[in-house]
Design brief:
- It is a single chain.
- The protein is an alpha/beta fold.
- Helix content is about 25%, strand content about 25%.
- The chain has an eight-stranded mixed beta sheet with strand order 6-7-8-3-9-10-12-11, with helices on both faces.
- Helix 3 packs across helix 4.
- The longest helix has 18 residues.
- The two termini are about 20 Å apart.
């Protein structure tokens, strides 16, 4: 959205669709391909050393976008640029191995349960031709940075707690000193009592090492705590995007307003309002604005044509209310 010097990451009109096979039509007497459009024309910019939070309900395409950023999936259209160079798929020549890292939602599922912690953390460095002494130094340093003792290196992943596993996957992500780390719901699968510890750890690491984060979450409180900028995603599109303080203080898009109204507040005794209605389907995207079926401010043109993105003083907003 903003930058004067070269940003760390640029996402330029990225599209990603997944084929769901063919469906037969008796009316047309032929079959047609069906697609799930997980990401549809998304553009973002993240400056070096900052955190952009991608916020939205489950199933809106956030994780797919994260996988595209690190090269685990390839976009069908658009470009992803890291420090001026196009990101390649992990299997392609020129892939930025080690420069892009991802912390997955379930740390237990992303670790080999019978692999030693040392080997888990060392994985991003295995093709870097480091001497064994340097490899060991880097791994032990990464463990220390996430608050784990060197003695843990010889244990297996199956033998440690959930909170320790999360710290291990963060150590694995930082050991190669990457240009960008994608954090996919980094606290959603761990005990509530240690979620704040992990978020504080991520902030400390960023301040110490200057890491750049793309953090994916459905939790507005996490976004409030971590983000320099927030991008709100709905059914594969960005509906609002801007500085955290401005979006939280004065949300513009009706979906953003509903998301923030649904966040529990300690000072209020009554339960928060839920977001009205159910999200639509990424396999059967409605005509016009994708939020129209749930929007209290819907107008006739909202059901006819997908709104463009308008620029306000606070944010970029994909809504006819700001035409």
């Amino acid at each position: 959205m903003k930058t004067e010097s070269q940003p760390c990451l640029e996402i330029q009109s990225v599209v990603k669709r997944f084929s769901l096979g063919r469906v037969s039509s008796l009316k047309l007497l032929r079959s047609r391909k069906r697609f799930l459009t997980a990401v549809d024309g998304v553009s973002l910019v993240i400056d070096k050393g900052e955190t952009l939070v991608l916020l939205g309900e489950s199933g809106c395409g956030k994780t797919t976008l994260g996988r595209l950023v690190v090269g685990l999936d390839a976009p069908d259209a658009g470009n992803i640029i890291l420090n001026g160079t196009k990101v390649a798929h992990v299997r392609d020549k020129g892939a930025k191995r080690g420069r892009l890292q991802m912390v997955f939602q379930n740390p237990g599922a992303s670790l080999d349960p019978f692999m030693k912690i040392f080997d888990c953390v060392a994985e991003p460095l295995l093709k870097s031709n480091l001497a064994k002494t340097e490899l060991k130094r880097r791994v032990i340093e990464a463990l220390a940075l996430v608050g784990l003792d060197e003695s843990l290196a010889g244990r297996r992943a199956i033998d440690i707690s959930g909170g320790q596993k999360q710290r291990v996957v963060i150590a694995r992500a930082i050991v190669s000193n990457p240009d960008l780390i994608v954090l996919d719901e980094p606290t959603s699968s761990i005990d509530v009592s240690i979620q704040a510890q992990i978020l504080n750890l991520l902030i400390d690491l960023q301040q110490l090492k200057g890491f750049t984060y793309l953090l994916i979450t459905h939790d507005a409180n996490v976004a409030r705590y971590m983000a320099d900028e927030i991008a709100i995603m709905y059914l594969g599109q960005l509906v609002e995007y801007g500085a955290t303080e401005k979006i939280l203080k004065s949300p513009k898009h009706p979906y953003t307003q509903a998301l923030l109204a649904a966040v529990p507040k300690l000072e209020e005794m009554k339960p928060p309002a839920a977001v009205v209605g159910e999200p639509g389907s990424l396999t059967n995207i409605p005509k016009g604005c994708r939020y129209a079926v749930r929007c209290p401010f819907v107008m006739p043109k909202c059901r006819e044509k997908d709104p463009p993105t308008f620029k306000t003083d606070e944010a970029l907003v994909k809504c006819y209310l700001y035409e």
